[in-house]
Design a protein that fits this description.
By secondary structure, the chain is of the alpha/beta class. The protein has helices spanning 15-19, 23-37, 54-59, 71-78, 119-129, 146-158, 171-180, 199-207, 219-237, and strands at 43-46, 64-68, 88-91, 104-110, 130-139, 184-187, 191-192, 196-198, 243-246, 249-250, 252-256. The chain has a domain at 9-145 and 162-194 and 249-256: Rossmann fold.
Length: 259
């Protein structure tokens, strides 16, 4: 059975604490994206969630809207209204956006395409609603890290799936799609996260059901699969306590759309 897109209702209450950027990283990411978005009119973010990206952009002067399939995540975003202005938000599926062609000057997707079963449709929809000459800014998150990508791939194998996440797993597939759509690709300057973790800690997080990649698994299947992944990692990688992420950058790809 095909995997469905991942709804983050279950993680809404702890999302910012477990997946938010450190304050200095958030400030640098906001400045980087704001520089690309300034003067382009309205921007649409798909998978806006709790507003981790959109709220700081809105407060830096960017006219931004957001959509998400998680009511609980949008509820967390609305709770931030006491501390400043918020983006306009809608409950909507990224693969079927409720907007006219060319309604926005820019589009944004941050750490979401791996969660969208129809990620190609989502990208095409984002291209559709952004006017010609606009820009799409896409951040792929952990999928940019080869070791983490390999671990998630092994987790899929050990749990009897074709892939751990339902959506995009290979950045080069995105590059090929955007090239076919006539977009010019650019890499924005990487922003260091200034965080450290180990493979052992990542495996413990997976075992505790912290990752969306394990949510569809029952407890027995999850624990057994991660036990086998741990054995694989020890064979392939050696010391699980070696630091694997040290100032791992936040990387955004910019795609300039044809006019």
């Amino acid at each position: 059975m095909a995997q469905a897109s991942v709804n983050f209702d279950r993680a809404a209450g702890c999302y910012d604490a477990t997946r938010g950027f450190p304050p200095e990283t958030e400030a640098e990411v906001t400045a980087l994206l704001a520089a690309e978005l300034a003067g382009r009119g309205r921007c649409l973010e798909i998978g806006v969630g709790t507003g981790r990206i959109a709220v700081p952009l809105r407060r830096s002067g960017i006219d931004i809207c957001g959509v998400d399939i998680s009511v609980s995540m949008l509820g967390e975003l609305l709770r931030k209204g006491e501390s400043g202005p918020l983006p306009w938000i809608s409950y909507a599926d990224a693969t079927a956006l409720p907007f006219d062609d060319g309604s926005f000057g820019a589009g944004l997707a941050c750490h979401v395409l791996h969660l969208v079963a129809g990620w190609e449709r989502a990208v095409r929809e984002l291209v559709r609603v952004v006017e010609g000459g606009g820009v799409l800014l896409i951040g792929l998150g952990g999928s940019e890290l080869p070791l983490i990508r390999a671990v998630r791939g092994q987790l899929a194998i050990e749990s009897g799936r074709t892939q751990a996440d339902p959506g995009l797993i290979d950045p080069e597939v995105l590059e090929a799609l955007m090239a076919a759509l006539g977009a010019r690709s650019r890499r924005l300057a990487p922003v260091p996260r200034r965080e450290r973790t180990t493979l052992r800690a990542h495996l413990q997080w997976l075992e505790s059901n912290g990752s969306a990649a394990t949510w569809e698994l029952d407890e027995a299947t999850r624990i057994a699969a991660i036990g086998r992944v741990r054995e694989w990692a020890q064979r392939e990688c050696g010391d699980l306590d070696t630091t694997i992420v040290d100032a791992a950058p936040v990387v955004f790809r910019a795609y300039d759309l044809p006019r």
